[in-house]
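REQUEST ID: PR-0412
SUBMITTED BY: lab tech R.K.
PRIORITY: routine
TASK: structure prediction, single protein chain
INPUT:
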Amino acid sequence: MISVNNLSLRYGKRVLFEDVNLKFTEGNCYGIIGANGAGKSTFMKILSGDIDPTTGSVEISKGERMSVLKQNHNEYDNISVLETVMRGNTKLFEVMQAKDALYAKEDFTEEDGLKAGELEGIFAEMDGWNAESDAATLLSNLGIKEDLHYKMLKELDGNQKVRVLLAQAIYGHPDILLLDEPTNDLDLETIAWLENFLADYDKTVLVVSHDRHFLDTVCTHVADIDFGKITIFTGNYSFWYESSQLLLKQRTDSNKKAEDKIRELQEFIARFSANASKSKQATSRKKALDKIKLEDMVASNRKYPAILFNNQVREAGDQILEVKGLGKSREGEVYFKDISFDLKRGQKVAILSSNSLAVTAFYKILAGEDKDFDGSYKWGVTVTPAYLPADNHHFFEHKDLNLIDWLRQYSEEKDETFIRGFLGRMLFSGEETLKQCSVLSGGEKVRCMLSRMMMQKGNVLLFDEPTNHLDLESITALNNGMKDFKGTILFTTRDHALAETVADRILELTPNGLIDREMEFDQYITSDKIKALRAEMYGEVVA
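STATUS: complete
OUTPUT:
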């Protein structure tokens, strides 16, 4: 258990938290949520001891071990992959080192023998004889193949390093587990494995994530950083979000009786409680939900951008897109080949591939940015595509421009009030619109690109990883905007909830052709027939 007592953190006049008192208990998983800049990662660093609070203290139960997902990906570069994982259980690793050092002595004494015997007993109690095989199993489950286990960590690429450090964090069944964005750079299969692992985990887990499906699957509680406070609510992210929206509606809608809104919220809680009975945390979650009191809940203070795409330049006709024999290779690597399909009006298509470079190459071809490819494609004459690329770096090369002048470049209407309207929808108002491009964060750049995209009034939208760098509020608004859009969408995302709620067709690009199915995303990724077909199309790439 972790106890947080009278915790405050201030930077000058800025207050992140004030007088926070919380307990995080065994058997629960807490999703730490809050707007960008609210202090989610900072709070996790206070819990781990990396940052000292201004006032207050953090206490953990005596004898409990805390493990943290490391953010420094180069810290273990000169250590083998397997040893890096085993270092996650510090006490066990220290016993192993001390034992090995004794046995390596040339002048092994009787006293050394007694000490070695003592260490062997501790080693056995900690299940040390299975330490290496347990670490290897974890690595394999996280997609690190056996031939990499004895390599130095510096020999692995960035995505592989993330998986090794995640294995290190969860190794040895720690009593308290702190995970900050654990799904970054993981593929769908690995995220699914981690979801199942954490849903069954019987210790205390705190996690920061922008992946709503992940939070919904693993969390029993939400710790919301808002109003300078941290408040714990029972339930997962979707329950917190829906409850918060209902409460906000109740607070702002003066035309309805408060009793009606309370009844609506009570009905929602009842529905959620029923759904929770199907979850892996069924018993504890449902008991907790039954105890929820309306007066314990508050509406969120957060703002959601207005991402609206339905102001199309014109409605598209029946002919949207025809693709014939499309193929792309680079430096001898086949990204995809023999891709042929017709796109129907109104379809919302998730584009998948095991290779993110293949997906980006596909979008660049359709956007007219890449002319070096095999086959052909043809847009319908009534189609006006709007494209959001995964890499927006070159759009912000003129660093001396403020946001108004930056967006004005892409607008036929140059009036400042008009431009400010589009920026305002993305929560840039007042002096913020005079920010220079050079100081924008990754999330702010994506919101600027979404403003540009809405201004284009496209009737076919192309999104390559649109949720990158966005906070939960922006992701939720984007998700709603895509669901409500009346036109056609091609999109790629690692956000499971976005794919499941938007896509009605799946196209997967492989080096050996196309997999094309009209079905929902969850159906696609759980189908045994599809799994077998993917394995065949990729060979060794997809198991």
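NOTES: The domain at 46-216 is CATH 3.40.50.300 (Rossmann fold).
REVIEWED BY: pending
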